[in-house]
Amino acid sequence: MKSENKQKFSLTGLLVVTGVLLLLIAVLVPIIPQVKLRADMRMVGRNGKDIYAMINGLDGEYEFPVNLWPKAQINGGDARNTTAEQDISEMTFQNSTRYFDVLLDGENRFEPSKWAPYINSFDYSKLAGAGVPEMTGTGELKPENNMWCVAGNLTDDMDEMVPVLVTRNVDCSSFHIQTQANPDTPLRWSQQYNTPFGSKGFVIIRKGGAIFRGMVKDATTGAVYPVGDGLQSAAGNTNLASLVYLTPDGIAYPQ
What we know:
The protein has 255 residues and is an alpha+beta fold. It has one domain. The chain is 25% helix and 14% strand. The chain has 4 helices and 10 strands. The chain has helices at residues 2-28, 31-56, 96-103, 221-224; strands spanning 71-72, 92-93, 148-152, 163-167, 170-171, 188-189, 201-206, 211-215, 244-247, 250-252. Strands 8-7-4-3-9-10 form a 6-stranded antiparallel β-sheet, covered by helices on one side. A two-stranded parallel ribbon has the order 1-2. The protein has a two-stranded antiparallel ribbon with strand order 5-6. A hairpin with a 4-residue loop joins strand 7 and strand 8 (211-215). It is globular. It starts with a helix and ends with a strand.
């Protein structure tokens, strides 16, 4: 009789433990992807902030030297001005991939005697992560190894809320400058690049240096350019009319 009770108790205990485990799994499985997503967004935000700081050459002084931020080349032609005497402020770019490659002097990075990057402390790993593969081997940086869209044709008087770095899963051509008229217009997701984050979230670095990690609920132009605190219309600030975004393989215009 004693042995039979012990067997019955063990079976009951096993069923209880199994039920608890299944309940925990049911609770945790939906949470794990969200935890990973937020961790990836934090990592990407830190990388974006590092890129911003290195391009700005802050060193503790919060300035905005636009000479290292790209001018957008809109009408075709050679994507790099090769005149040796001219600095990067005189170059124009057709995409952010070429811009980053020039910043790092990618074509000479394996020849120490020739290598002359604009930013010594910057490395290609900051351009990857969260499903975007890091560049390996030699050759020029490829769009598939670059997660960032970069604002082009920036000027000193543009608002600090202007996004200067945007993860490539956002279609920057859906940005609206006149947010007062369209405060809740949803952003479009990129049809070409699903990574990082797909249509679940995005990361931007603003001209003022702030990191914005947006989830789906934040994917409106009102979140990118907050109404009341964000950009004026193109008519109110003619400089904004020239603002474009260099995507990894081309140019996107705000609407």
